[in-house]
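3.2 Worked example (two chains)
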Amino acid sequence: MINQIITNIQNDLLGILDENQMKLLSEALAKHLLPLDASPESKPDKDDMLPVFIAAKRVEGCSEKSLRYYESTIRNMMESIGKPECQITTEDLRSYLDTYQRRGTVSKVTLDNVRRILSSFFAWLEDEDYIVKSPVRRIHKVKTGKTVKETYSDESLELMRDHCDNTRDLAMIDLLASTGIRVGELVKLNRSDVDFENRECIVFGKGNKQRKVYFDARTKIHLQRYLTERTDTCEALFVSLLKPYGRLQISGVEIRLRKIGRELNFQKVHPHKFRRTLATMAIDKGMPIEQVQQLLGHQSIDTTLQYAMVNQANVKNSCKKFIG
């Protein structure tokens, strides 16, 4: 009951408070209200543990976007199987994942993401003593084929820069290309987050984790020119081109880049490709993988390795050098 109240309060304030404020609120509510729910008779209903799990993940610092994905993924599974969480078996989950995969449009990466989320949920149920053993334990990681994903060439980047018809788009492309930040991090940036003297800025990544990223001299010049031309008082680093000049949204960045790509007849122009390009270029030029990991804000170094595409010309040269 208490967990449901906490969830309801959080949902009511979701559009009012930012992620950091939501985290502080969640911690305070959990600290003062959960002890009231400690008696055996007030134990949450075992057939309705999803809201409690989501509340626990929120307290751990998961972003609201991640929480929505967790909730919808688990809810879809429960509705499809039609059993209470504590009665779901390994066979139920295997059948569900098999049916999910047979839809035809689901990639193996997406399927493994679903498996991973379900594993997190049932492992939590096990840790909290609501079930004896997680039914996902015997469902192994989905094998995904490794594909070499494209990056932008130097020529493509220059053509996109030349094609920009306003200083905002030019500064935006430069910042994405030189820092490799996520598009979600880009749109959260404020003017005050940028240190032009040291050519660095503070970004807030996944889970509201803070890190520094660094940009080049060209980006500095174009950013300063863009900010000098602006007449609005919005604190956001990037705003819409038209009044009322509100903060630029993720969809706005994606639409703008797709438009530039279409006009240049480029395939698959999107923000994330800048990130992959930077990672590949940094590793190709000898930057230690641990530093690339820190620059990109990855928790796992395996994620960084997935982003980086090895330059085959360098592999060939190394073979000639070391093997002959």
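3.2.1 Second chain
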Amino acid sequence: MMKNAAITLSRITKSFGATQVLKEISLDVSPGEVLVLIGASGSGKSTVLRIMSGLEKADGGEIWVNGIPLHDQKRSRDICGHVGMVFQQFNLFPHKTALGNVTLALIKAQKLSVAEANARGMAALERVGLADRAGHYPSQLSGGQQQRVAIARALAVQPKIMFFDEATSALDPELVGEVMEVMRGLAREGMTMVVVTHEMGFAPDESPQK
């Protein structure tokens, strides 16, 4: 186990029924590192990411995220607020504006005031280049813009680690670049990131581990 690692997996195993997907996987991710997971469909890369983010329980082994032992069920919920997650699907509420989508969890889960949530939400939208679209609804945004709103929503909780699960695979090819550029910007800022992707153009530029 690497001292002060942002993420540590130690001998992780995972099976779905009779199919073993992960067999004693061990790795460390340093603070500020970008780990890119590339592999064929069904190779287990998304399962690794979901275990790291606390969305999936491993069958065996130990997982540490920001010093929190996710393998300890009593501590696993402590990860909330430490990580942000961006999925393939945008999962935006169609009846809420871009800003409303970003601030919803801040108000409901983190109990921020509307003013505090709006300030943090606008800062997150500015970070992904969409401050001028804060009042737009998802139907008024392109797919790339919707995914950038989803990234802003994750950033608004001020995570230490960002997880991206095929964040560009649902986009038309001409829209992939704008989302990848936001992700590259986060990498340049020193955000710890784990990225599952099939976009080879992203991986070689940003990740020492592949």
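3.3 Remarks
The mean pLDDT is 89.
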